[in-house]
Structure formats: C-alpha cells, structure tokens
Amino acid sequence: MRISNVLHKSLVIPTVEATDKAAALREIATFMCHNSPQIPHSPQAVYEAIAQRERHGSTGVGEGVAIPHAKLPELPGLVAAFGISQKGIPYEAIDREPARLIFMLLVPERSGGAHLKALARISRLLKNSVFREQLLSLDEASGIYEAFVQQDSTI
Questions:
Q1: Contact status, residue 100 vs residue 133, Cβ threshold 8 Å
Q2: What domain range includes position 148?
Q3: Against a cut of 0.90, is the pTM above it?
Q4: pLDDT at residue 112 greater than cutoff 80
Q5: Where in the sequence numbering do the catalytic residues fall?
Q6: 3-state secondary structure of 39
Q7: DSSP SS3 for 68
Q8: Per-chain mean pLDDT for the chain
Q9: Confidence of residue 138 (pLDDT cuts 50, 70, 90)
C-alpha cells in the first residue's frame, strides 16, 4: 500500500495550532471533514470516533509521532490527514514525548486488513529520524506531501 493512495495534498496541515491532545484531534478531524468529500460524517462524529479509540490506549507511538485512527460506518475508503505541531502536543505517548507529527487515519467499518497495512506503512515511514526531521523543516502542504510521496517510493 502506498501512502499516496490515502493521503492527498489537500489533507496536509502544515501548522496544527492546538496545544492539547483533544483540541488537536478536533482540529484535524474538522480539517478532514471540510477538505474530503469522501467523509459522510460531521467533524464531531469523526472526533468522537477518534476519541473513543484513544480511550482504549494512546496512539502516540513515540519519537514525536502519533497515529490516531478510527473505523467509521459508511466511509467508502481509507482517508488520511497529516499535521505538524512545531511546539509539540502532550499526547500520552509511549516515550512520554510530545507529538509533533500527527497522521490521522479513518477507515471503513469493514476495512479488513487494509487499515492494518496502512498503519504499518505509516509507522514504517515515520520511524526514519531523517525523514521526521525533514518533515519538521517544511512549512507548506505541497512540500510536505511531496516529501511523503518521495519517501514512500524508497521503501
């Protein structure tokens, strides 16, 4: 699975303004709903699905990375958004470091293994410290998206 299959340039947020986890998840969920015609849900419904998943355990995977995700009914396919917080957001990550790179993934209720492949791919891409630093140095959605496409083609 290629990340470019689920992440589009219009769903990249170069600067997440929120300073806490709940506000960041709301900000990204709202952005997704306003910028993806694929999502037949309100920003509140998306936020609630993500927040429900977070109650089962934080999706802060460490090294400044969080991959919040949730299953939603009536979603026709996987949809992703990516946001950067330069300041970092307290996120209850495994290593207790603030999240700076947040990759939100929404998957259909009956997605089978596709969402697991997407989560694995996202995780693999963001494990690369050089790539993480590159992302943090970019400030435009198009450049961030192109960095993902380029990195995705090398792995």
A1: no
A2: 3-154
A3: yes
A4: no
A5: 69
A6: coil
A7: coil
A8: 94
A9: very high
DSSP-derived secondary structure letter, 82: E
How confident is the model over 3-58, as pLDDT tens digits? 888 899 999 999 999 999 999 999 999 999 999 999 999 999 999 999 999 999 99
Contact of 102 with 136, CB cutoff 8 Å: no
The confidence score (pLDDT) of residue 142 equals: 97
**Number of structural domains, the chain?**
1
* Separation CA 88–CA 116 (nearest Å): 26
Cβ(63)–Cβ(95) below 8 Å? yes
User: Which amino acid appears at position 12 of this protein?
Assistant: V
Sign of CA dihedral 44, 49, 55, 60: negative
DSSP string, 86-113: EEEE----TT-PPEEEEEEEEEETT-TT
- Look up the CATH number of the domain holding residue 69: 3.40.930.10
CA dihedral sign, ordered 13, 18, 23, 25: positive
Structure tokens at 81: 């958004």
